[in-house]
Structures are given as structure tokens and as C-alpha cells.
Design a protein that fits this description.
InterPro entries: Cyclophilin-like_dom_sf (IPR029000), Cyclophilin-type_PPIase_dom (IPR002130). With 309 residues, the chain is an alpha+beta fold. 31% of the residues lie in helices and 18% in strands.
């Protein structure tokens, strides 16, 4: 017995996500109908016979909602319920009418016998009047709240939603395969990790025991070795050192002042011409000749320069 395939439809209302509907397909009961619906969800069937319409439910609207009955969509040609294409052509024949139209089943919409295309509907309550006329090919397995929310959307007189309801995304779901070998390997890894942790903890405990034994043989460190004083003692010692430095500075200043007081004060000296003599030493110029008498300077001959015209 083959496992039924599953597809999904992501619904948006006015551009806002409403949720996902997951549908299980009855592949054995209606293989042709389910394959048509699956490929339209996946969207890899290419274009329809008209050469323009893409065979996909993506970005297709939910164009009809009847409260207490069903939700209809799937018109991929965009004619709001008057068009549609299948992967086999414009239409294909009905298959077996085995399943009944109970609540939350998925069935094909048609215009009469053997006129199945891409349009489908999801029942929101039992619809026995559709039995024998529409092919049931799947059922909703997840997203019942999404179906109920769609049924409550306001519609006009022609059952058309007054909000923009779209299938924003769609595709096929695949079941994850259980790999027993990988699970076994993972279990082995977990056991190995646990054993490694236990071994590591045991080694750490042994190291701690060795350290405790070694501590017994280590002599106590004398206080004089790298001994630091208390904060109060260190502060008082710093204050004493500062006072000693201040005393030394004061003594040096007093010495310099006393030296200056001991020096002999001398009046500024001048030479014979009245120029002040700088420096502390004695006058060192020669004095072996006497100064020129004043009357010599007065009677000294003056030079005359001839002026040329």
C-alpha cells in the first residue's frame, strides 16, 4: 500500500498571512485527479494549452465562499470561476465517486460530468447533495482554523469575497526518513561523550587530591617575604616620607640664604671715564702711564681737511 502524498496552500487576506492548509491526497482512489492537483501545487507542469496560463495555484484567488457549505478556488486562468486548465488539457474525465462529501474534504468543481480542470472546493460542513457528482480526492489534515476563518469572510450577493483572498504559496510536503544507523551512531556518540566526561571528572578529582597532598609538604611562607603593610601603615609611612622631603627642601633654602648673607656687598665701580665696571674681579687695565693733562688736550692741534670744489 502506497503512502498518500501531502500538499499545502498558504493563504493571505489583503496581503496578510492567514495561515497554511495541509491537504492529504487520496492517491489510490483518484490517482489522475490527485496528480493533477499535486502538479498544480508544485507548479512545474509548465504552461497550459493556450500558451499563456501557467499551470500553478500560486497567486490564484479564492473567488467564492458560501457559508455553511464550501470555499472554492483554483481558477488559474483568472476568470473568477469561469475558466481553468488541467495538466492533461482543458478538462479531464471523472474518476470514482467513492468518498462522501463530509466536512473538510477537498473535491473537484465542474460544469457537469467529465469537466474537471483546476478548480476545487473545500467543504465547511457535510454536503451530501454533491455525492456522485463531484470527485472527492483529499481531505484537510492541518489548518482547520484557516478554513473556518475563510468561511467567516464577508461576501457580496454573488458569494465573492469582499477582501482579496489569495493562495500566496503552495507545494508538496515530504516526510522525513528515519535513519536508524544515524540514530545508533548518535546514541554511540552520546555514550562516548558521557564516558569521556566521567573520565575527565575522575582525572580532575585525582589532580585535586594530589594538590591537597602536596600542600601538606609545602612550608608556610614567612611574613617578611614580599610582605605588604596594611593600608593605614602605608599611608602613615608616605606622610612621614613627605615630611622628610619638605624638611630637606627647607634646609637647602636656608643654606642658600645664609650663603648670600655671608658675601661682602660691594658698591658698583666705575673707571676713570665714568663707565661702570661689570664683574666681581679687580680692575686689570694698566696704570703705568699718567693721564693726559687737560691743557694738553685743549692746545692739541686739529686736522684740517682741504675741500675740493
Amino acid at each position: 500500500m502506497t503512502e498518500n502524498k501531502r500538499v499545502f496552500l498558504d493563504i493571505t487576506v489583503n496581503g496578510l498571512s492567514l495561515g497554511r492548509i495541509v491537504i492529504e491526497l487520496f492517491c489510490e482512489i483518484a490517482p489522475k485527479t490527485t496528480e493533477n492537483f499535486r502538479q498544480l501545487c508544485v507548479g512545474n507542469a509548465g504552461l497550459a494549452k493556450d500558451g499563456r496560463t501557467k499551470l500553478s495555484y500560486k497567486n490564484v484567488s479564492i473567488h467564492r465562499i458560501v457559508r455553511g457549505f464550501m470555499i472554492q478556488g483554483g481558477d488559474i486562468s483568472g476568470r473568477e470561476g469561469c475558466g481553468g486548465f488541467s495538466i492533461y488539457g482543458e478538462c479531464f474525465d471523472d474518476e470514482h465517486f467513492v468518498e462522501k462529501h463530509s466536512k473538510y474534504v477537498v473535491s473537484m468543481a465542474n460544469k457537469g460530468p467529465n469537466t474537471n480542470s483546476s478548480q476545487f472546493f473545500i467543504t465547511t460542513s457535510e454536503a451530501s447533495h454533491c455525492d456522485g457528482k463531484h470527485v472527492v480526492f483529499g481531505k484537510v489534515v492541518k489548518g482547520f482554523d484557516v478554513v473556518d476563518a475563510l468561511e467567516k469572510i464577508r461576501v457580496d450577493q454573488e458569494d465573492k469575497p469582499m477582501m482579496d483572498v489569495m493562495i500566496s504559496n503552495c507545494g508538496e510536503l515530504f516526510r522525513k526518513k528515519n535513519n536508524t544507523k544515524n540514530e545508533k551512531n548518535e546514541d554511540d556518540r552520546v555514550e562516548n561523550n558521557n564516558n569521556h566526561k566521567q573520565q575527565k571528572e575522575q582525572e580532575e578529582e585525582e589532580e585535586e587530591d594530589e594538590k591537597e597532598e602536596d600542600k601538606e609538604y609545602i612550608p608556610e611562607t614567612p611574613k617578611s617575604w614580599l610582605y605588604r603593610e596594611d593600608n593605614n601603615e602605608s599611608r602613615s609611612s608616605k606622610r612621614e616620607r613627605g615630611r622628610e622631603k619638605g624638611d630637606r627642601r627647607e634646609r637647602s633654602r636656608s643654606r642658600s640664604r645664609s650663603r648670600n648673607r655671608d658675601r661682602d656687598y660691594q658698591e658698583p665701580r666705575h673707571d676713570s671715564s665714568g663707565v661702570r665696571i661689570k664683574g666681581r674681579g679687580h680692575v686689570m687695565f694698566r696704570r703705568d702711564r699718567s693721564s693726559t693733562p687737560e691743557h694738553w688736550r685743549v692746545n692739541a692741534p686739529t686736522r684740517k681737511f682741504n675741500q675740493h670744489n
